[in-house]
Each structure stands twice: as structure tokens, then as C-alpha cells.
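Fold it.
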Amino acid sequence: MSMNLGSGGSSSRGSGRSGAFARRRSYGAMADINVTNLVDVMLVLLIIFMISAPLLQSGIEVKLPKTASTAINPNEEGVIVSIDSKGGIFIGDTWARLENFEDQLKGELKKISSESVFLRADSLVSYGVVVDVIARLKASGIANLGLITEPLDRKTRRSKANKR
């Protein structure tokens, strides 16, 4: 009796995939989560929000005058009236004509149900424009008017204190 050991027939083990001894590959569920794509998307979104967040703040560019005044209550709500360096008047972020100023202001005050108005005026605006807006605010019946300024730096405070 002779046996063929090296011919690669069906009786030899491991050499072929057919027959009784063939292994089946089974693919099971992978227990690991690939978070690389998630991290990539989140980093891109983070960069986008970091760039766009400063742009979402008040769009009226105003260089406020610097004074040594006390801070207002940040919880107090009110309408912000801005005067830019060209003399343009804005209620919130909306440009307002002087003819319709009082009506637009009353509409904004009704929206937020407040009686407070905060005035932001550029330091380069002429005094007459600021006084005209304040007079219109007072004529509209606004009793609670706040003027928004920037605080002085420490160096400026020391130099003013030394001059006294």
C-alpha cells in the first residue's frame, strides 16, 4: 500500500482549501471605534467657530472714549444705540435715520420690554451729534440712559493721578 504524501491532493492537510479540513473565514464585529474622522471634523468645526465668533459680535465699529468710570450692571438689559465715526446712528445693529429714530427706538424697546438705553459713541464723533441723539432720547421719554466707555489703562490712571 502506497500513500502519496506530496502531491497536494485532497488527502493532504493544509495545502488546499477544499475538502473536510478547509477553514472558513468568519468576520466578526469590530469592537474598536475609529474616531479619527470624528476628531478631524470636530477640529475643522472648532477652527471655523473660532474665526467666525468675533464676527458675530456687534458689527458697528466704534472706538469708545476712555474714562475712569464704574462698570454698569451686566445683567441689565436695554437697547444699544451706537454712533460710528462717520456720524451714522444705529439702534442695535440696524441703521436709523434721524427722522424715524424715535419710532424705531420705541419698537426696539417694546421688543425687549425695557426702558434702558445705552449709548455708544465713537470718540471722533462731533459733540453736536452726540448731544442731538441724547436730546432725541430724552424727548422720547427715556429716563434711564447709560453712556458706554472703555476703562482707562493703569498707566493712564497713574499719570493722571500724578498730575493732580
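The longest helix spans residues 36-56.
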